[in-house]
Each structure stands twice: as structure tokens, then as C-alpha cells.
Amino acid sequence: MPEYKAPLRDLKFVLEEVLDCDSHYKRLGYNEASLDMIDAIMSEGAKFTEQVLAPINQIGDQQGCRFEDGNVITPDGFKEAYQQYVEGGWPTLSAPVEFGGQGLPSSLSVAFSELTLGANHSFTMYPGLSHGASQTIEAHGDDTQKQMFLPKLVEGTWTGTMCLTEPHCGTDLGMLRTKAELQNDGTYSLTGTKIFISSGDHDLSENIIHIVIARIPGSPEGTKGISLFVVPKFTINEDGSVGERNGVNTGSIEHKMGLNANGTCVLNFDGAKGYLIGEVNRGLNCMFTFMNAARIGVSNESVAAAEASFQGALAYAKDRLQMRSLSGVKNPDGPADPIIVHPDVRRMLLTQKTIAEGGRVLLSYLAQLVDIEVAEKDEAIKKIASTKLALLTPIAKAFLSELAFEATSHGVQVFGGHGFIKEWGMEQLMRDTKICCLYEGTTGIQALDLLGRKVLGTQGKIFEPFSKEVADFCQENMNNPEMSEFLSALMLYSREWSELTATVGKKASTNPDEIGGASVDYLMYSGYVTLAYFWAKSAKVALDKLASGSDDERFYRAKVNTAKFYFDRMLPRAKGHAACIERGVSSMMAIESDDFSF
Length: 598
Ligand SMILES: Cc1cc2nc3c(=O)[nH]c(=O)nc-3n(C[C@H](O)[C@H](O)[C@H](O)COP(=O)(O)OP(=O)(O)OC[C@H]3O[C@@H](n4cnc5c(N)ncnc54)[C@H](O)[C@@H]3O)c2cc1C
Known about the structure:
The chain is α+β, with helices and mostly antiparallel strands. 57% of the residues lie in helices and 11% in strands. Strands 3, 4, 5, 6, 7, 10 and 11 form a 7-stranded mixed beta sheet that branches. A two-stranded antiparallel ribbon has the order 1-2. The site of flavin-adenine dinucleotide has 20 residues, from strand 3, strand 5 and helix 13.
């Protein structure tokens, strides 16, 4: 099992040096989020994740959750770890002060969550969903509901879930059947079945607060007739204490490819008491608060998985002796050289490193945009941040999850046959990470959202603020010769990005299937170019540090070389995606559905 080490040095580089979090927080009025405070939180977080969460990650995978007498029991150590998580005040970091939170910026929570995810993805899903549930109630609930649910959710005594999926409806939520009937007291009675509900039941908290979409009888068909409800596992007494069992029961748990320590449940709602949040039939709009937070959460899961797999592979590659280097013996005292000398092993390690570290910058940048949405007073600045966030969220969610799965696969590969053996933990990382490409909207659906709804739906206007930022960065650094290799490529690919958009738009005007045929390649292309920008920014900071004679030269030198690898060996992959987009959809649609196989 690889030993997880919180990547504190790189987090510091990303937050403080590349994204200047100090000025960012001060400008937004988060004065208490000083650099010292951030350091203290991250080093305490590192201890907790390395010492408490990492040691139960493999046990969690092996034991999985158990389903006994209608209740889900988490693996050994999870209950105690959750208790420590709550006692440490970790759930409260960025929650509002009025509900018992510490009122710190949400980007700080995101940075801390990367550590818990890297140490134990399954565990982090329990508090992770509580955050989304709290944010949804805070944004759309009334005052009574906020008082009823938020203090306990914020302190972690209760946890949350997100209940969208039903057996016949996953992507297509308009088909949902769960019914919500108005009662005389103004509450609703919910009946229906939800499947695949993460953290749907467990033994970690006193109550579980389900955020559920359902249809009120008489509402329109499709997505226009969906309303949103909060449904507690145990009803809540007038004094706020936990009351009797509500009509929501766990039917079973799923036996999954990975994330075995997170209870993924079938939940049966049978006349369960629920409270409407937001307006009738506006449920999906409200649910977007949850879904957007969850998409950033999945991007974080992806970065964390790439990092954890990289750490395991790197340690192994330095230790494992096999064959001699092509360019001469590197370890004359040993029977063979460590495998890290072989170019192909380096290719895999550097691929992982560019995904983890580049992904960390993209993710942290998104988290700062969320801070701006929450705390900025200037509406014009807020609007720019929201537009960038709308463009980059599907890219981060889908591109990073696809690349994280690749990174974890390289992790297995670097170990050779040993990577396929459970005790090393590399195959667990790969199994646990596949879900990131699936939940919160599959890669295909994120790609349609990006290309169809956001890019073509706005005639490309959604690009403007981010394109301007990239162009300004290129302009500012044009005269720096050390940056030219990065900037010339970045400008070339950025130009091609907008040309490709025009190409797809033109094709789609005569055949709408062209959008679906191009969308995933378009998303991947967008991802490679976006990450190129963040790698160029990282290189710039590292080059400046080297020029000013930093005493951490090895770190910055490695950063510049990793950026070079990204531009040499990762960014050109975008060319293949561009070629696929240009070839169009015709070969995909030529075969009749019945003729795929005989
Ligand atoms: C471990 C796990 C945890 C989960 N946690 C939760 C949770 O907490 N809450 C919750 O509500 N749900 C949860 N889900 C459900 C998850 O969000 C859905 O599985 C996901 O949204 C996809 O839905 P589906 O499985 O029904 O696939 P489908 O919608 O049936 O899709 C099947 C395939 O068809 C493709 N497809 C569908 N429509 C289109 C289209 N229009 N164009 C192109 N391609 C299309 C998809 O991309 C996919 O490849 C979880 C699932 C799992 C496995």
C-alpha cells in the first residue's frame, strides 16, 4: 500500500505563488484567511489525513460496507475517524458563521478536501455530500428550514445526500417518477425509489438529510415539473432533536467496482415526510447549486487520485531494480538499475505528475472563482467569474476525471504485475477513480453541456472572459525568451480552439448529430488547451523564482521541466482530437443500430 503524503509543498506553490491567494482573500474581505492560518490548517489537515484516513483506506476497500437488518454498517475504523473529523471542526471550515461555521473561503475547504480525498476517497464522500446539501438548503431553503437543518449539518452531527437517480432515469431526469403529495400541514409525502445514492445510509451520524427531487401530481411532464425536497431519515422534533424514523428505508446496497467503503444505496421513500425547498417546479434549478458544487468535488477527487497514484508509482520506480539503462549503467553497485531511469517509466510518471499538478492549478482556480461568486461586491467582476466558471466546470469535471483514470492506470503499469495485485493499493486507486467519469454527469453529458449548451448556445460568447485572460497572459510575457516555447504553442492551440468551434457550429447547422459526434473530442481538446494555460502560468512563476535565486531551486527546476513535458508530450494529443472533430460524424451514424453485430 503506498504511503500517502499530503502534497503540501505543491499546494503552497499553487495557492500562494501561482494564484496569489493572499491578495485574492484580502480583496474579498476574508482577512482571517492569512498565509499563516492557511499553513496551520493545511499542516493539521495533513496530519489528520496521513495518520487517520490513509490507514483505513485499504481496510475500507477490503471490508466494504455491510447491509444488516436494513442498516448500513461502515468498515472498521470509519466511525472513529468520522468522530475525529467532527471533533477537529473540519466540516465547519467554510460554512457560514451564523450556522456554526468558521466562515473561511470555500477554496480553502477545497484544498483541505484534496488531502482527505487523496488519503481516502470513500470516507470523504460522507462529509462531501453534506457540504452540497448544506449549500443547497442555504441557497434555497426558508429561514425555518435553515434553522432546522443547517447547524447540525454544519457541525457534522448530521450528514447529507443527493437523491436524483431512479432505476429508469439517470441522465434523463425528466423521466423521474418519485411523487410528492401536499399534506394539510404544508409538508409533502414522498413516495418512490432512488438508486445509487452515495452515503445514502451509514452508521456515522445521528441523522441523514436527503435532498430529493420529485414530482408534485399535476406538474408538467419532463424537467419543467420537478420540485426539490429535504427529507430527513429521522423526523425532527419541535426542539430540534431527532424524532421517530421517517418513511425512508434502505432497500439494499450496491456491490461496486470501487469506493467500497462508501454506502451506495437503494432508498425507498414510502410516504416520507419532506419539506419543499425553493419554488414548486423549479427543483432542477435549485439542484444545480448542489450539482455545480459536486462537479467541482469530482474534479478534486480526480486531482487527488492522480496525486496518490503518482506518489505510489514514484516511490516504487525509485526502488524497483530491473534491467539496465539504455544510455549506460546508473546503479553500478546493484544488480540492475532502478526502473525510474527508463524513458518509458518516466513517460508514465510525468504524465501522472502533469495531471495531478496541472489539475491542482485548474481546480484551485475554479475554487477561487467560486469565492468570487460568493463574496465579491462588484457585480461586473462577479459576472466575469461566473462566465469563466460555467465554461471551465464541465472541462474540469470530465477532462480531469478521464485523465485521472489514465493516471491511475499508469500507476498500475509502473508497478508491472505487482500493480495488479491488491496489496499494493494501485488497482484500488484505479477502481475507485473510474466513478469520476460517470457520476455527476458522464463525460459524454458534460461534453454536450460544454459544446451544445454553453459554447454553441451562446454563439461562443462564453469564451470571451477566459480567452481574454489567456491572451493577456501571452501578451504580458511575450518578451520573455524563456516563456516563448510555452506561449507560441498556447497561442496556436487557442486560435485553433476557436476555429474548431466555428467548424463544429457550421457542421451542426446542417446536421445536429455533428454536435454529439464532436462533443467529447471537443471537450478533451478544450481540456488540453486549458491545462496548457495553467502549466504556462506555473512555468512563469517557477522561472521567476529561479531567476531571483530561490533556495528551493530543485522544486522550481522540476516544475519548469514538467511544464516542458506537458507542452512536448501531452498538449500534442489535442491534435488527434482536432482531426477527429474535423472528420465529422458520418462514419458514426452510417451503420444502422441493428447492423452493429451479426
Ligand atoms: C457509485 C455511484 C454513486 C452514485 N451516487 C449518486 C448520488 O449520490 N446521487 C444520485 O442521484 N445519483 C448517483 N449516482 C448515479 C449517477 O449519477 C448516474 O449513474 C449517472 O448520472 C448516469 O446515469 P445512468 O447510470 O442511468 O446512465 P445512463 O443515463 O443510462 O447513460 C448510459 C450511457 O449513455 C450515455 N448517454 C445518455 N444520454 C445521452 C445523450 N443524450 N447523449 C450522449 N450520450 C448519452 C451516457 O453518457 C452513458 O455513457 C451514482 C452512481 C454510482 C455508480
